[in-house]
Amino acid sequence: MDLQIALILGQDGITNGAIYALLALALVLVFAVTRVIFIPQGEFVAYGALTLAMMDAGRLPGTIWLLLIAGCAVAVLDGYAALKAGQQRRLAAILGLNLAYPLALLGLLKALPLPDLPLAVQVFAALLVVVPLGPMMYRLVYQPIAEASVLVLLIVSVAAHVAMVGLGLVFFGAEGYRTPPFSEARFELGPMLISGQTLWVVLASLLLIVALALFFDRTLYGKALRATAINRTGARLMGISPALAGKLTFFLAALIGVLSGVLISPITTIYYDTGFLIGLKGFVGAIIGGLASYPIAAGGALLVGLLEAFSSFWASAYKEVIVFTLIIPVLLWRSLKSHHLEEEE
Amino acid sequence: MNATAVNKVLEVRDLCVSYGKVEALHNANVSVGEGQIVTVIGPNGAGKTTMLSAIMGVLGSRGRVDFDGSVEGVPEVERMVARGMNLVPEKRELFGEMSVEDNLVLGAFQRYRMGRRDHGQTMEEVYDIFPRLKERRTQLAGTLSGGERQMLAVGRALMAKPKLLMLDEPSLGLAPLIVREIFRIIAELRRRGVSILLVEQNARAALQVADYAYVLETGEIAMEGPAHKLADDPRVIEAYLGLGGKHQDKLAH
């Protein structure tokens, strides 16, 4: 291996690592606030990328139907509760958000000549379709069992993941897609050739991480999520309901997932089931951070990206094995180093 | 009952709470008038904390909770907070890894959510009552001393500008001088117009500061009456105040 190849591999590793870092942060966030190990995180990556691909190909993405159905279910559940409690204003908000919004979006997607619109508009439309599935999923899947043990939540996560992969096959077919790059530009930096898309991925990831940090540090809603992660009872007594915190967290997780998807789909071909492997690599990063530390999780995910790039050069048949084997020494080290805190729960 | 002239902020009727088959609270009737301090005293395990948790909606219950003019069948925490009820729990439940100031700001979360964004001003009022918190504003809540933690817990609850503040054992685990300080603050809060439902094991201090008092024993209200009358009741003296506790008296003043 010469310097040239090392630079290319390093660039690849950092690009993928940036995406894994975003997913790792989302996984840590979801676990800290709701104790859910969010296996379907990867599906949001695939859904985002493939919804964009469908729009680019001029087809109506199947995810809009999922949004409609999930919206109906939420509207029925929450609407009934609001009706029973006699909260008219809340009822209106629930119907607007869960029924009117998906319908309006469906009409918009049908009316707009999506393939002819600029890529940025398509990306925005993909966000509008897929991101609301996050909070809806929390409402339908996790909110009814919010007090269950971590293991039960994990099992439900696996089920949700399997269901979403199956639906993905129905919506998008078995074919893989690549979306057009955000930028065709190429920059020469000494011996290195950097593509515009790589820059997009790295810069967008950094920007998103900074935005998240600001959100958690400066805004009251961000602080409320941190407070829920630190002390659930205390947060409830301040009027921060676990349901609100859960929905907000899943909104952020879905947003991160979909953005990761549209960022990576010009670089990698995305199939309906690709999300799982991408999410799993983010998960390795999150585990390195002990599902608790954001900076270590992001650093770990970057390490995973680099390790994957270099092992694909030396031993490409074993590249996944090498990446996932990383988790064993990490777990060993963590279990030797940390004390058991489980009883405290 | 309470002096009928005052409006009732809280009126609890036939409140029952069970843990499985065990009934921890049986047909409790309690009311708090506007601007009053009402205390519930009683031994460990009598159901005092259970009662507060049920009124707040942390625990499920049967009965009727009439708060600020409208009835809740089964209260729900977030709704009660939004309507102006606040509980300072026995364990404080602070956000240990966040600064004092962030803890306080979060106390105003429900108000902020409903569009009333005056927490800056409320915070100054809280700092006015607890100057110590202002000194420690950037410190993490987990590093505070016991008394400061209690002050922070009360201050955080005050950030919501509650109509009714419920305090669960505010003196628990605090040094006698700090206990005195806490009771001084409770009296000060009433002067500022906050109605308070106070649960205490420190019966002497509680009866001294309160207007009206209930004695809770094994899940049922055993006695009630104006606090100064109850303080003179021989049964209360024997069971909760004891004789010759002169230094306790001094500390409570």
Automatic annotation (TrEMBL), chain A:
It comes from the Bacteria. GO terms for cellular component: plasma membrane. GO terms for molecular function: transmembrane transporter activity. Pfam families: BPD_transp_2. Its main location: membrane. It is found in: Cell membrane. The chain crosses the membrane at residues 20-40, 60-80, 92-113, 119-138, 150-174, 194-216, 248-271, 283-305, 317-336. It is a multi-pass membrane protein. GO terms for biological process: amino acid transport. Keywords: Amino-acid transport, Cell membrane, Membrane, Transmembrane, Transmembrane helix, Transport. Belongs to the binding-protein-dependent transport system permease family. LivHM subfamily. PANTHER family: ABC TRANSPORTER PERMEASE PROTEIN, BRANCHED-CHAIN AMINO ACID TRANSPORT SYSTEM PERMEASE PROTEIN LIVH. This is Branched-chain amino acid ABC transporter permease. It comes from Pseudothauera rhizosphaerae. The lineage of its organism: Bacteria, Pseudomonadati, Pseudomonadota, Betaproteobacteria, Rhodocyclales.
UniProtKB/TrEMBL annotation, chain B:
InterPro entries: AAA+_ATPase, ABC_transporter-like_ATP-bd, ABC_transporter-like_CS, BCAA_Transport_ATP-bd_LivF, P-loop_NTPase. Keywords: Amino-acid transport, ATP-binding, Cell membrane, Membrane, Nucleotide-binding, Transport. GO terms for molecular function: ATP binding; ATP hydrolysis activity; branched-chain amino acid transmembrane transporter activity. Transmembrane segments: none annotated. Residues 10-243 form the ABC transporter domain. The keyword S-adenosyl-L-methionine does not apply. One of its GO terms (biological process) is L-amino acid transport. Belongs to the ABC transporter superfamily. This is ABC transporter ATP-binding protein. It comes from Pseudothauera rhizosphaerae. The lineage of its organism: Bacteria, Pseudomonadati, Pseudomonadota, Betaproteobacteria, Rhodocyclales.
